[in-house]
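One example given next:
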Amino acid sequence: MSHDFKDAASCWKLILSDTEQGMGLLSIIEKFARENTAPARILFGTSGWRGEIGSDFTFSNLRIVVSAVIGMFRSSESSVMQALGVSGFNEIKERGVIVGHDNRFLGYDFAMEVIGLLQRHGIRTWYAGEATSPEFSAGITMLKAACSINLTPSHNPANYAGFKFNPSDGGPAGSEITSKIEEISNGLMDPSSVIDRPMPMNVDVEKIDLTPLYVEYLRERSTIDLERIRDFIKNEDCLICIDNMHGATRNRIQRILGETPKLRYFRTSDDYLFGGFAPEPSGENMKGIEEVLRAGNARFRLGVIMDPDGDRIRHTDGLKQIPMNYFGAMALHFLHVHKKISGFAVKSVGTSNFVKAIAAKLGIQVKETKVGFKNFRPYLLADSKERAIVAFEESDGISGYNHTLEKDALFGLLLAIEMMAVTKMNLSEYLDSLMKEFGHYYPDRSGIAVDRSLAGEPLVRKLSVIKDHYQIGTVINIGDSIRRVEDLITVDGTKVVLDDGSWFMIRPSGTEPKVRFYIEARTEEGKKAVFETAEKITREALGK
């Protein structure tokens, strides 16, 4: 059947409604991606620029963004160079840029466009092919590269592509860099400013395999004990299931830990459409692995699911799912108590306070940051006076002491295996023991949509009244209980902490007409009342 589509969005709608049949329509998406020269508003969120392939993420707009990056390089503006960690353009040309992608549609073609433009300006490039975000981060360090460009939208649906930029320290780019790229890109978003396509013959591909560099990085940093992990897998009765969700993490663990029937892999094939599901490490997506683990009879069982670019992870042992709210707290306890690592616990403000309860008894300070892994950079730098033992966020990202400034799902998996090796417990057993000692916490998140006219600054202004109405000492009804505000945190939105340790955070989305709720109750049954309170307070602030 033939189809006529006015734009890529309408074509994607049909593709995603039936991914089995839709694969044949990707050639139409490619045509839109190559021929559509409509400008787009370039905005770097918490982890790069993202857009729909063929609609706003096109070859034309990609060339404009890369040209903006080159313009930023050439300007050698001191504040930007300092953020990049280089002295100027000549150093960038010599140290070079690593370019690669995840498993998305047109990833290779987009990468060749990037490399062609960089080489036109005399900048050395390495082509990493399909690689994970933490491998880019470690690779920058090991190669002493100036930066990397990773073409991935992380866990976004199949119709998205993305552009992640990492400076010379390997971390996510800070606002000093991304604001400059946005400024130059949006200034070039004019039909007369379309950048010519570099000729294929001008692209000289110097390939680099980042996985061996990542393994070398792990050995040098020594936060993870690879030999202990390998010995555990070899000698213990264990089953470890890894769901790669058709992403760039496939084949990585085999190369790090070796081949063994005790390690089983799922969804490793090429599939640009991810089998029709959202490629994120959600509870729903873990059901298949949980069934396999429950059917097994191994003493030690672990299952993980990782997103396409390998920067998010969720764990299970078949009996209980361990979201990052819990796993991050477990990591703090393990690294400090069992591996004797000292420092701080670092978490985003919307993350569970379970880690705070553990840290308080261990005499460890906790640092809370805005949402976005880039905000952990000051605590992950090797020369920081306030170094993180672990840094994690509720949206499934984690790194740790002496490790990458980028969140790392591979690190999350290896750390979980080492936990089992040392504690001789499955993750749910370890978690239960910690909850008995430090208390029970039940985090969750939700949100509501608001009128599109409120998106952005108007929504921020309306919600700002909440912090004035719920000062410390204010009494609030939570279901049938009367609670008192014990703390008020306004690092990112408004977080109201109550006297029983429960809390709710009300935060406007930075890019969508939505209000997000992050909550935590002290019982599973208590979550509903906390959610209801957060929504009621939000609607009052909005005048509804």
User: Anything to note?
Assistant: The radius of gyration is 23 Å. The mean pLDDT is 94.
